[in-house]
Amino acid sequence: MGDALLAIGTRKGLFLARSRDDGAFEVDPVRFSTIGVHAVAVDPRGAVPRLLAAIEYGHFGPSVMWSDDLGETWQEADRPPVAFPEDTGVTLTRVWQLQPSPSEPGVVWAGAEPGALFRSEDGGRTFALCTGLWNHPHRPQWQPGGGGLCLHTVLPHPADPRSIAVAVSAAGFYRSADGGAGWEAANRGIRVPFRPEGDQYPEFGQCVHKVAAHPGRPDRLYLQHHFGVYRSDDFGANWTAIGGGLPSDFGFPIVVHPDRPDTIYVVPLESDMDRVPVGHRYQVYRSDDAGDTWTAFGEGLPPGPVHAAVLRDAMCASPAGIFFGTRDGEVYASRDDGETWTVIARHLPDVLTVRAAVL
């Protein structure tokens, strides 16, 4: 393995950690101190990977910055790079996701609040609103989840630039087959148990927490819902519950192993009402058979009691390892597919997002 870079976005700044050849990570001094960093991305398509960070200036509002020297210096467009057209009458609340396209050079997608998708064709310098999703007839009925009406997942197809999917909390999972011009809700099989009997599988209105896919098998998706864990084998046309072997199917992140599309990871929480790790200790549950069975791993993680959750974007899987950060500012890494863990950082601010790459 070559040099590895870990980008950790927190409530108060961005931290970059680096390692060499399986060595321990060293955490650099904070960037954007006191500024919230809600999304980060590592775009490997240039001669040097481009780092992207969605920041929130507080009363100055959100923005997106980029670095072409691995975080040493940062640049920002002269005008707000992500902004709603004036005729929408809407103000951007936050950028929740930055996702470089695997099939279109220069294209970067941004998921934003309230419930919007933006597209950049210049590597993330400037973005334009995806009007097809914004004008969807379901939109007037979308309701925000506890974290807002956030578009937090963007899944562009690795080979077909016309195929893309998104998840919006608490609207549901939507997909497009024409590059974002038209969209359909794709939530069949996802149960919403608080709805009346006979109406628990609505077309939309699901509180999706996160969706993950493997580039080698893009039609297979994994979804962590407010009320369950699901798998789709047809790019969201149908969903099957796979959380039966977990101690709790409530949680936020879900990630796929970088080399094995049947291997997935979740961090279960006790319940919606008691959002702490199951048993008050961090345990990562791994399935090697696409969710049919699950095994808990926690060696190297604190024995507890712990009370901090792992947020939807604060876990990632890459060739550099499996990583997650917690709401009490700890970051952990596994180099053996999640079976044992080591601590990378302690006492950081609330960890919001984690991304890793081999340089």
* Class by SSE composition: mainly beta
CATH topology: Methylamine Dehydrogenase, Chain H
Spatial gap, N to C terminus: 9 Å
What is the fourth-level CATH superfamily?
Answer: YVTN repeat-like/Quinoprotein amine dehydrogenase
Q: How helix-rich are the residues, as a percent range?
A: under 10%
Fraction of residues in β-strands? 35-45%
Helix and strand succession? Answer: EEEEEEEEEEEHEEEEEEEEEEEEEEEEE
Which of globular, elongated, flat, extended, rod-shaped describes the shape?
A: globular
| The level-1 CATH class | Mainly Beta
**Overall pLDDT confidence:** 95
Radius of gyration over all CA atoms, rounded: 19 Å
What is the β-strand count? 28
CATH architecture term: 7 Propeller
Low-pLDDT residue spans: none
**Strands ordered across the widest β-sheet:** 3-2-1-28
Query: How many helical stretches?
Result: 1
Main sheet?
Answer: 4 strands, antiparallel
Description:
- The structure is a single chain.
- The chain is an all-beta fold and 359 residues long.
- The chain has one domain (36-358): 7 Propeller (Methylamine Dehydrogenase, Chain H), CATH 2.130.10.10.
- Helices cover 1% and strands 39% of the residues.
- The chain has one helix spanning 131-134; strands at 4-10, 13-19, 26-27, 36-43, 50-56, 62-67, 75-76, 94-100, 108-113, 116-120, 128-129, 150-156, 164-169, 172-176, 184-185, 208-214, 217-225, 228-232, 240-241, 254-256, 264-266, 284-287, 295-297, 315-318, 321-325, 331-334, 342-345, 351-358.
- The strands form seven sheets. Strands 3-2-1-28 form a four-stranded antiparallel sheet, with no helix packed on it.
- The longest helix is centred in the middle third of the chain and has 4 residues, at 131-134.
- The termini are close together.
